[in-house]
Design goal:
mainly beta; Neuraminidase; 22 strands; globular
Length: 294
């Protein structure tokens, strides 16, 4: 079933009761059924976290895997964000993508980018794709020599992002304005498909497992300190957008931001920055950690 909706209705998140079509320039984008209307199994899966190693100096807020190692995206706070969180203004606004050894965390390569307040990244096609969650927003396509190749806004509305992954020529973007995971062709920059997520949760990065399913970081929106925080993951079918399962982290777990799945193992990172919390309130701030089902 498909029908045409207005851009205003799409951006407000009110038009996704089934697979539907939308004209976006010359493209037609399909939107998956809204999660609130799906019969999702009650969360029965649980997980614990195990810290592995600290990231380089800064707030690690994005992960992406590769055969060479684990890529970590640096987040810096500047301007109004620096004042809000009470941190010093950085001398250099550029944000790095670090390639780390999977086991030791040793830095193997550094790519400098023009991204700001990075909150997600993808690596693929010979590039690092850093997504900015503060002005000038957008996606910074950067080559391995730290040269900016392109800077483009998230299609269908721009705004901030909380995660991204590159897969088979497509960039999957967790868009905060659209409240969903948007699949974009990385070459043409045409939007193709969107999976709305549950607006009652906080969402961050996403990753693909070995069977091609999407796992999306979730959390509560009400907590004011780490001790009250609740974290988890939602699992989606990338073809239909159906939410298949939910997973809760055990109390006392690290606060997930970035997400990657490599050789059957799930990795995340605790940025140390969480809306409404003091900086580094989590005891695992700055760590890459493993997520294990129990």
């Amino acid at each position: 079933m498909s029908f045409t909706i207005s851009k205003r209705a799409f951006l407000s998140g009110t038009a996704a009761a089934a697979l539907l079509g939308m004209t976006a320039g010359s493209a037609r984008i399909a939107v998956a059924a809204a999660p609130a209307r799906q019969r999702v199994p009650k969360a029965s899966l649980r997980a614990r976290t195990t810290p592995l190693f600290r990231c380089p100096e800064g707030f690690p807020n994005a992960l992406s895997g590769s055969p060479e190692g684990l890529w970590v995206g640096e987040q810096k706070l500047s301007g109004e964000l620096a004042r809000r969180y009470g941190v010093p203004e950085p001398a250099d606004l550029g944000e790095c993508a670090w390639l780390l050894d999977w086991k030791t965390g040793e830095v193997k390569r550094t790519v400098r980018t023009e991204s700001r307040n990075t909150s997600g990244m993808g690596v693929g096609g010979g590039y690092v794709w850093m997504v900015a969650n503060a002005p000038p927003y957008g996606v910074f396509q950067t080559d391995m020599e730290s040269r900016t190749v392109s800077h483009r806004q998230v299609p269908l509305g721009g705004g901030g992002t909380h995660g991204a992954k590159y897969r088979d020529g497509k960039l999957w973007i967790v868009s905060t304005r659209l409240r969903g995971i948007l699949r974009v062709d990385a070459a043409s920059w045409q939007p193709e498909f969107m999976i709305p997520y549950d607006p009652s949760k906080r969402h961050h990065d996403m990753a693909f497992d070995e069977n091609g399913y999407i796992w999306l970081v979730t959390g509560d929106l009400q907590s004011s300190r780490y001790a009250q925080g609740r974290f988890g993951l939602d699992k989606y079918d990338p073809e239909t957008g159906e939410r298949l399962a939910s997973l809760d982290f055990e109390p006392g777990s690290a606060d997930p931001h970035g997400l990657e799945i490599h050789e059957g193992e799930m990795y995340s990172c605790d940025a140390g920055i969480h809306p409404g919390w003091p900086v580094n309130d989590s005891p695992f701030s700055g760590y890459v950690f493993k997520v294990e089902l129990i």
